[in-house]
Amino acid sequence: MADLRLLLVDDEEFFRESIGKELAHTGYAVESAGSLEEARRLLKQETFHVVVLDMRLPDGDGLDLLPEIKETSPTTEVILLTAYGTVEEATRAMKQGAHDFLMKPCKLGELEAVLEKAVERQSLERNNIALERQVERLQPSQRFVGQSPQVKDMLRLIERVAPTDSTVLIRGKSGVGKEMVANAIHRQSPRVRQPFVVVDCATLHENLLQSELFGHEKGAYTGAVSLKHGLFEIADRGTIFLDEIGEISPPLQVKLLRVLETGTFRRLGGTADIRVDVRVIAATNRSLEAMMKEGQFREDLYYRLNVFSITIPPLRERRTDIPLLVEHFIHHSSIAAKRSAHVSAEALEALTRYPWPGNARELKNVLEHALILCDGDAIEREHLPMAIRMGPSFGAEDEATGLLTLEEAEKSYIRRVLNECKGHRQKAANILGISERTLYRKLQEIGEIQATP
């Protein structure tokens, strides 16, 4: 991971050079300035994790720079230094957002201790923001369940790529557990103590997604009443997971490519480059190769994302995992009173035979539904949806095998859900566990609605 970026502002050249060298040895990327003017220029060029700021400078008071730093980068920690400090000045500095106040000459060890606390606090703040975003997504268990050869192969790939900083592209149909795989990579990486930020690219309008990813300055557009940190800033030194990356627009693809190539971006309405150290994991249920051929996805972005690829097999290709998943989902059900329930042999046979176009997500929802219906401790065949009770013969099937192809199963299931919802696309999308925009695209693909010319 990249060094922590530190700006040292002091008019004593010897102090800047000596302290700067020592801090560089301990893992900081140090820039220095001898005046307010020079400091302002550097602050416009990039963001810093910490600023060590002298109170007395040739062209003004260091305290005058403090509110400017906090306005443009609220998470930057500021440590003030002075040889003429007073209690009043210290109180004023802390009220304006300074992390600490040290008297000069200060010992290197003392400064390092304060810097360590400042970085810890900054990391805690970013983790809190990331955690707030993830509360609704948390699952009782983040373990990928399965003992099939396909799952074991996939887990070995995760184990190999996790300790690196390589960009990972996760492929798989909706509901297979792409976010869980991304989380597993993060948890096994050196970035595990830093934020893991999830972005669902399919659920946000282009302009809103751009603001979410990169943030915006106050007044950047109507309604931007305050500065907003982008999720790339929140994920600094951690991992960002871009789910359904195939849904982002070509203009946004260009901006994402710049972040991957340079590690920098600008907030909406901003002029200063913000540098971040973020590991990117992306996921898609679409063929990016086909999208490239159609001119819908940038080739250069594809190669930046596809450094290391992991494909999650659909549930129908690892049926031996279904009993394990059934046990897992029941044990972690939101219906606490039914967590000791079991599935009858007939019901388990029906669950194992079903093609599961909605994958593990659909299985989880079916079991939750069945737990609500069953009165005792056993889920019987009668508690399962009709499509599952009827088995693979439900809908169109392949004459040679008697089984649906994955594409046919998905089409059949989408049509059935839409029919149950009386054509209400938003309700159908919620049941399917996909965005309404993704459902609209799938309906175009299966010919249920005409594409807009």
Biggest sheet: strands, sense, closure? 5 strands, parallel
Query: Which class do the helix and strand fractions yield?
Result: alpha/beta
CATH architectural name of the largest domain: 3-Layer(aba) Sandwich
> Could you name the CATH topology of the largest domain?
Rossmann fold
Q: Could you say how many structural domains there are in total?
A: 3
- What is the overall pLDDT average? 84
CATH class of the largest domain: Alpha Beta
Helix content: 40-55%
CATH superfamily of the largest domain: P-loop containing nucleotide triphosphate hydrolases
Tell the overall outline. Answer: elongated
In the predicted model, the low-confidence regions spanning at least 5 consecutive residues are 135-141, 394-402
Q: Taking strands numbered 1, 2, ... along the chain, how are they ordered across the largest sheet?
A: 2-1-3-6-7
Structure summary, number of beta strands: 18
- How many whole angstroms does the radius of gyration measure? 27 Å
